[in-house]
Design brief:
With 65 residues, the chain is an alpha/beta fold. The chain contains 1 helix and 3 strands; from the N terminus they run H-E-E-E.
């Protein structure tokens, strides 16, 4: 997954938006993204939760069985 296009769009329109919330499984090119603005990443319970995402990160916990 490439996070570059949505992040580029957000960066180009920072005056129009107060934050970017990105729902993802976490598998992608997070190292290519530099922090800017208010960024929040919501990572699914079965996703790659060890990634270093710019901004805030929320990890959805795995369901207890």
């Amino acid at each position: 997954t490439s996070f570059i296009e949505p992040c580029t769009y957000y960066k180009e329109h920072l005056r129009e938006y107060t934050a970017m919330v990105y729902f993802t499984d976490g598998y992608g090119d997070q190292d290519a993204i530099k922090p800017f603005g208010n960024m929040m990443w919501v990572i699914t319970s079965n996703g790659y939760q060890q990634g270093k995402f710019p901004g805030k990160t929320i990890l959805i916990p795995k369901k207890k069985q």
